[in-house]
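Q: Now give one record:
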Amino acid sequence: MPTQAAFAINIATSSYKVRRCLREEWKEGRLLIIRCPKPRIPSYITESQGRLSLIANQVAMGGGPKSEHLLVILPFNPPIAIFDRIRRNYPHIKITFHQLNFTETPWKGREAVPHEIFHDATLLITLSALPPSPQDCPKLELIHFTSAGTNHVAKSPIYTDTQIPLTTSSGIHGPQISEWVVMTMLASSHHYNLLHQWQRDHTWGKDPHGLGLLRNVHDKVGQRLAVLGYGSIGRQVGRVAKAMGMDVIAYTASPRNTPESKKDHGFIVPGTGDPDGDIPSAWYSGTEKKDLHHFLAQDVDHLLVSVPLTEQTRHLLGKEEFEILSKRNAFVINISRGPIIQQPALISALRAFDEHSSANASSDGSFAVGVETDIKADTSIPGIRGAALDVTDPEPLPSDDPLWEAPNCIITPHVSGLGSAYVDRCFQVFEVNLERREKGEKLINVVDRAKGY
């Protein structure tokens, strides 16, 4: 029998002798393709040596899956191991890689992508580079984005004038972003800047003010995290927060009144998130200002902003919202997009708390800037006690922007989602959809153009 031979065998109806022969051929690595029109597959047919293509009818008729051309446009070196995995599992897919270097922002390349590169592509993986027009991609059937959102391409003709399915990498960012969220919350509440300064100064901190700040650190047990946008990232942050003893409440645009509606139907990194939506102690919803204000008024200690940027969420949080959050001088965390927050209003809220709390601080630091105390509304301290921002408006943030000097504000350059597993997880989502597409099943992480996410 020739090595690497391909056979069309109906396992479900074959004799014991044929099945035994099939088992030996599989063990020797010579069986590549099988035909199995019935769901009963022998236990020895596994994916231990790579994905086994189950091709029904096509093989019997002498055909096979149609040839595909995958075009990958990304700002880093080609992920060779991932490409090898795709070629092994989908030998009918040709892969072309184009490296596109970016400017200071990941949404804009330093050079234009040649129009002709899109012409024969049937599949596209990209961060932001798209064909200039529908005419430039006549064969394109699926576009997968390595980002969680698509607001940065919402004005592209491919987005507005075609019905090419768009999928995102939503679901892959939860682990690393949740760690960034916890890091920044704790860096603020445990006065890491002070501790780091003592270390740099070679000082075993003894000053009364600094020790007073540390004696008044309030741990997270019993504090309330409000997640504005309970998607994959919000679910993982909620999971970690609950493990720390926090109470988690959630907000979504549409109601989640049934167990099924609370489930996460997108890509989930195993062992993470909130697949069944069981973590929130309360779930709020709505698209009106009054709905949002009701949610923000629920004694919020920390607000996580994780809604997608759409025309409806642009400048969603402003002066009114920060006044509501000042009830408990909430700590605001934004890992979504900068324009969701009205930045001048945020700066004013941060300054208001800093000015009033500094004026009321005692010499031992028992009530001072950034202290995670259980502040009540009757303290009459306005504003919010701090913020952690991985996104700003604009990006990159100009060096003279007043946000840099806002008190108790942590700013990082849109890096909370980066990590060593990022690229592989992006492709995992794409590969899940490749298999679903081959089986005629519904894709995951599909963008609803009407909603904008």
About this structure: The chain has a mean pLDDT of 85. The longest strand covers residues 68-74.
